[in-house]
Amino acid sequence: MLVRYRPFRAMRRREDPFPSLWSHDFFGDFFENFRDLKVEEPKINVKENENNYLVRGEFPGYGRDEVKAEIVDGVLKLHAEHKEEKWDQDEEEGWRSIETRRGSFTRSFALPEDVMEEKVKAEMKDGVLRITLPRNAKKEKEVKEIEIH
After folding, report:
1. Number of neighbours of residue 131 by Cβ within 10 angstroms
2. What pLDDT does residue 35 have?
3. How far apart are CA 85 and CA 17, in angstroms?
């Protein structure tokens, strides 16, 4: 049977010369609110055919200017950063609320040697990033036989 761990419960039961300090759980159920909070990373799929490598990433809620793709030293790097602010106010009751949210994501892929980096194309539509990495069909893998003594 699994039992929820509550680290401050033991402190509450502890006999202490100052029982008023331990008479209640200081944090209560504060952390319970975050139990079901899920942080989801964008889904990335990589496929290949005989002409191209295809990278498809889903970035729901991200704009084109919030997603960056680059190739550095044979590594494809994807980076996305999203910032959101929601303002709400009621001047009659005299209150104002500002909610801010921020998230970022980074993922890197080592590229095979047959990728023609100068011909890579990318497009983003409706939160879906598609990157086409053309393959060099002429470059065949070199097989080197090793002599065993």
Report:
1. 22
2. 53
3. 48
Other CB atoms within a 10 A radius of the CB of residue 80 amount to 21
**Domain 41-134, what architecture?**
Sandwich (2.60)
The residue that leads in pLDDT, 21 or 74, is 74
Q: Which residues contact 63 (CB under 8 A, 6 or more apart)?
A: none
**What separation in angstroms does the CA of 50 have from each of 23, 45, 53, 75, 142?**
69, 17, 8, 20, 18
Angle at 112 between CA 109 and CA 117, to 5 degrees: 85
Q: How far apart are CA 1 and CA 68, in angstroms?
A: 46
Angle at 88 between CA 84 and CA 94, to 5 degrees: 145
Q: What is the mean pLDDT of residues 63-86?
A: 90
Model confidence over 26-45: pLDDT tens digits?
Answer: 555 555 555 554 556 789 99
Structure tokens at 31: 């952390």
Given the structure tokens 């290949």, which residue do they identify? 48
Give the Cα separation of 93 and 110 in Å (integer): 56
Residues above pLDDT 70, as percent of the chain: 71
